[in-house]
Amino acid sequence: MLTKTICFLWLCLLGVISAQGQTGFFMSPGQKQVDIPFELSNNFIILTVTMNGTFPLKFIFDTGAENTILSKREISDLLKIQYDRPFYLKGSDLKTDLIAYLARKIRFDIPNKVVAPREDILVLDEDYFRFEEYVGVNVHGIMSANIFSKYIMRINYDRRIITLFDRSVFKQRIEGYSPVPVEVFRNKMYLYTPMQPLRDSATVVKLLIDTGAGLPLLLFSNTHPLIKPPQNAISANIGMGLGGYLEGFTGRIDHLQIGDFNQSNVVTYFQTLDTAGINLEYLNKRDGLIGNSLLSRFIVIFDYHGSKIWLKPGKSYKKRFDYDRSGLNIITSGVTLNTFIVQSVLPNSPASEAGIQKGDQILRIGRVPATVLTLSDLQNILQKKPGKKLRIVVRRDGKRIKSRLTLRDLI
Q: What end-to-end distance do the CA atoms of the chain give, in Å?
């Protein structure tokens, strides 16, 4: 069961507001580049920004989102922001109706770095995303990467810095990188790339480049006859989307090539897309997406105007793609986000064999109290090597229950 955070931003299907109102971030006059630090939590890039000159907020930096989104309406209400009009959106199940409001001319600052003086954004009527449960960090919304697209952008995952370059200085800084052409559609980048689902099969797939997804790779299992879960794939809740959980399968593909670089045995999530009643134009005939778990193996440079990215291997380029070995899918809650609840248990997994149940609260792993762990810490423990024995204490119906489980490969 998935323990990595995934959030699919189905607003990219909707095209609900025009890009005309988005003027983007600006450097100070005379600046040629600027470094913007970020947090990397559960494979999400998180930026700290201020909105309309007030308190700091945290936004997920998302190349897969067409629009910037505030998920906490209480913040915009507190700031007495006026809403232009409501929009009725489709949730991640593509059926549920959700409500958002258009707010115009919002100012964003990344203090002492860049300023976006007047952005049009969407404000969700309710917090449909519930980011905190899956990210383990207080998050207030999504920031579309398009807000930076007037500049060349470099994401250095190892140093956790986004660098913006004025185009006049960029050509001096691409040594050691491999260029990869992309298609830019509705403010998002798409990559055509060779893939081998199995060792004896090959095809070319079209993938959205999506830093708003914490997974390595997701494929739609009904867009191509060769794209389907492998025989040993497991049924999985593959994450939380806009208005609901996303169901699918998890397995591995044999091989994915990105430009000059190859990745093998890639953990892959498979979703059957119900396209009935939706406008397929917004899918842009794609077969899936590449997320941060894979992108973070590189230093990545984005050029929206030139329809190109550049890649250079980072520190984790050759690292094995790990996956949960417990069968636990865990979410977090509480004021300090250190209350961990079992959201689901994979049948026939170490966790189910140990008697752990949905709704259990994890109190301790080994000798470590859960209250001193982050969600990311907990998930890393559950990905340790096969054969690792874990003692887990949970609370169920007011009682403390002790369990033992032995981690093993699930896919």
A: 10
Structurally, how many domains does the chain consist of?
3
pLDDT in tens, 113-135: 999 999 999 999 988 878 888 78
Read off the tokens for 340: 């961990």
**Whether residues 14 and 162 fall in one domain:** yes
* CATH code of the domain covering residue 67: 2.40.70.10
CA distance 224 to 205: 9
Q: Same domain, yes or no, for 55 and 197?
A: no
Q: Are residues 19 and 162 in the same domain?
A: yes
Tokens encoding 121: 């954004």
Task: Tell me the residue range of the domain where 137 lies.
Answer: 10-168
Task: Report the percentage of the chain scoring pLDDT > 90.
Answer: 70
Kindly state whether residues 162 and 25 are assigned to the same domain: yes
Encode the chain in three state secondary structure: CCCCCCCCCHHHHCCCCCHHHCCCCECCCCCCEEEEECEEECCEEEEEEEECCCCEEEEEEECCCCCCEECCHHHHHHCCCCEEEEEEEECCCCCCEEEEEEEEEEEEEECCCEEEEEEEEEEECCCCCCHHHHHCCCCCEEEEHHHHCCCEEEEECCCCEEEEECHHHHHHHCCCCEEEECEEECCEEEEEEEEECCCCCCEEEEEEECCCCCCCEEEECCCCCCCCCCCCCEEEEEEEECCEEEEEEEEEEEEEEECCEEEEEEEEEEECCCCCCCCHHHHCCCCEEECHHHHCCEEEEEECCCCEEEEEECCCCCCCCCCCCCCEEEEEECCCCCEEEEEEECCCCHHHHCCCCCCCEEEEECCEEHHHCCHHHHHHHCCCCCCCEEEEEEEECCEEEEEEEECCCCC
Residue that is written with structure tokens 């990397």 in the block = 40
Strands 288-290 and 234-241: unpaired
Domain shared by 19 and 64, yes or no: yes
* pTM for this predicted structure: 0.90
Cβ neighbours of residue 51 closer than 8 Å, sequence gap 6 or more: 57, 70, 75, 79, 106, 107, 108
Model confidence at 62, in pLDDT bands (50, 70, 90)?
A: very high
- Residue 328 pLDDT greater than 70, yes or no: yes
**Mean pLDDT across the chain:** 88
